[in-house]
Amino acid sequence: MADPRTPGPVDEGTDVLAEIQEEVARDLAEERPPAGGPAYQVAGAAVTIAIGVLGAVLALGYGLGSLDRPGPGLWPFAISVVVAVLGLALLVGGRRATDTERFSRSSLIPAAGVVTFVGLGALMPLIGFEIPSLLLCAIWLRLLGGESWRSTVLVSVGTVAAFYALFIYGLRVPLPHLL
Amino acid sequence: MDLTAFLDGFALVTEPANLLYCLVGVLIGMLIGVLPGLGPAATIAILLPITYTIDPVSAIIMLAGIYYGAQYGGTITSVLLRLPGEASSVVTVFDGFALAKQGRAGTALGISAVGSFVGATVSIVGLTLLAPLVAEWALDFGPPEYAALALLGVLLVASIGNGGMVKAMISAAIGLLLATIGRDSFSGAERFTFDSLQLSDGIDFVIVAMGLFGVGEILYNLEERHGKPHVPAAVANVWPSRKELKESSGSIGRGSLIGFVLGVLPGGGAVMASLAAYATEKRISKHPERFGRGALQGVAAPETANNAAATSSFIPLLTIGIPANASMAMLFGALLILGISPGPQLVDENPDLFWGVINSMYIGNLILLVLSIPLVGIFVRVLRVRPAILAPITALITILGVYTINNSTFDIFVMIAFGVVGYLMKKLGFEPGPMVLAFVLGSIVESSVRRSLLIFDGDPTGFITRPISGTLLAVFVVVALWPAVRLLRGRRAARSAAAEPAAPTPTRGKADHR
């Protein structure tokens, strides 16, 4: 590994790698929204600990058995304990990390997206997939994406027609449909 | 190596139908991989329902095609938009985008295509020769070895991914926990089902993957990339000149070897390989200062290495049955759905599948090379399509696709739930990759651990005294404790630096909590 052109410490190889990795991290950081701060880390850690504790309590109820006769709860219990311990480690050591992203007004866009997903899932068995899909496309294009009415109509109708052809005629999948 | 089986594999691959699946896979992979924000794992996740409708060999040939097609698609976005499709293309951005700014985007893409082809082909030859040997060796593995190997695989993926290691380990551990939902295969007891009939069979892997990778990614992109127009750099002269080929042939050669070796190791081999190849080129170059400012070698080496690694990461999947990274986890899950459990017995029990997949890669990569250079113009046009238009289309593909798996609306809601989890994880700095991988491996780890305990009569020291599982667990401990060791060393270095103010040493510990 020793290179005459670049005099330096023995672990030169790892240094170049670490340098590149840092550069990569910096590069990606430029594109990201501002970090969320300690509250976000605490929230992540708290959810983790809650999952671990809940898992451990439930697993205890399934019966741990013994090491030579492991019960159904032993493995989930062990994993839950690991989850909880890792959550604690995050709570103690990770509060100053900057790997989170702050929620902002634009976080409402994915929230609205989820609502349309649920709407499509709920309406499809009742009235077929065409109208809900058309609505989803229109909402995403016009309201969430800020497209013009013209491209909204063209893309929505085109997409739904293409999916109709693909699923109903092409793959012959029993997708609930109106027509 | 069984030569007849190898040749039979070729006969299978060159059947027109399979050739077509290979071609379609590569094309779809490139087209979707080129969409910013959707990497290979997400691409495969979204398209997994397709595999239910065709026969296993064709399905896996197509998925493999999607995988390396998507890998190359990510290169295109790295060079033209400065948006890496996935972590293993990140270093390509430095020199690739610099070249694009100098009007040499075409050259960068052309060299990447050639490098990818060479790297992948070298790797496939290695795979052809090495895989049967590894499989034979792995036949002796018992439950303790599998438990240790799978745990090590999960840990390595968690430690090499981007982001903090503690968070990646949390993500992996919760993945293992999710895998226990449903009926216990040993005792029949129901676990974490909350008396739900739908949960008693456990959660379907495809639905978890489509949710975390597919929907999570779509929601995340909806927020982040929203409204930002993409203006790809102009592309001309994709065919590399003889001088350029000569200039980068050394990098391509070294990249192939680095990629092959690192790709075999579990845990994001392609990411490490691309970084290591880039670092090597920079170190041995006579003009290291040109790196980052448009050095052709800075594109050729990592792109060759990540494709070589992507290919050789099939070795642990096909021979031991342990997926080495998130994309391989998707293929692993797909194989399980098709009723095939990958492992050392695969080469003997399913030679047509084993050799069919490997040999399809020779042809798939040739298809990729032939398509990528002339089709660059089309991909640039795809990049010009506004993300706002593509978003609802990908959303519909995932929702309608997941419904078709079991004709169940319950699946749609489970997928949406995992999508929300995936989105929140990304916002809070948790990588979904380790969770998916751990979820896939979860039942193997659990049943291997429990079977081992039965073999050892409940004595856990049995794991340590068996040579292979003992070694693997030793590696596990070293990797798991490495961040703590580095932190301590960094502190000590900082303390000694404080004692000698003449030679300040930068603290390395901070890098652990990125």
What's this entry about, in short?
The complex is a heterodimer of chains A (179) and B (514). By secondary structure, chain A is an all-alpha fold.
Describe the 3D structure:
The complex is a heterodimer of chains A (179) and B (514). Chain A is an all-alpha fold and 179 residues long. Among the domains of chain A are: 38-93; 105-170, no CATH class. Chain A has six helices and no strands. Chain A has helices at 12-31, 38-62, 74-93, 108-127, 130-144, 149-170. The longest helix of chain A has 25 residues, at 38-62. Residues 1-13 of chain A have low confidence and may be disordered. Chain B has 514 residues and is mostly helical. Chain B has one domain. Chain B is 73% helix and 1% strand. In chain B, β1 (182-183) and β2 (190-191) form a beta hairpin. Mean pLDDT of chain B is 84; it is low at 502-514. At the A-B interface, α1, α2, α3, α4 and α5 of A face α5, α8, α9, α11 and α17 of B.
Helices and strands in order:
The complex is a heterodimer of chains A (179) and B (514).
Chain A: H1 12-31, H2 38-62, H3 74-93, H4 108-127, H5 130-144, H6 149-170
Chain B: H1 3-13, H2 16-33, H3 40-47, H4 56-81, H5 90-101, H6 105-138, H7 143-160, H8 165-178, E1 182-183, E2 190-191, H9 205-224, H10 242-264, H11 269-284, H12 297-312, H13 314-320, H14 326-337, H15 346-349, H16 351-384, H17 387-406, H18 409-427, H19 432-455, H20 462-465, H21 467-499
Antiparallel strand pairs in B: 1-2
Helix pairs in contact in B: 1-16, 2-4, 2-16, 3-4, 3-9, 3-14, 4-5, 4-6, 4-12, 4-14, 4-16, 5-6, 5-12, 6-10, 6-12, 6-13, 6-16, 7-8, 7-19, 7-21, 8-19, 9-17, 9-18, 9-19, 10-11, 10-12, 11-12, 14-19, 17-18
Transmembrane segments (chain A): 42-62, 74-93, 114-141, 153-171
Keywords (chain A): Membrane, Transmembrane, Transmembrane helix
Domain DUF1468 (chain A): 44-176
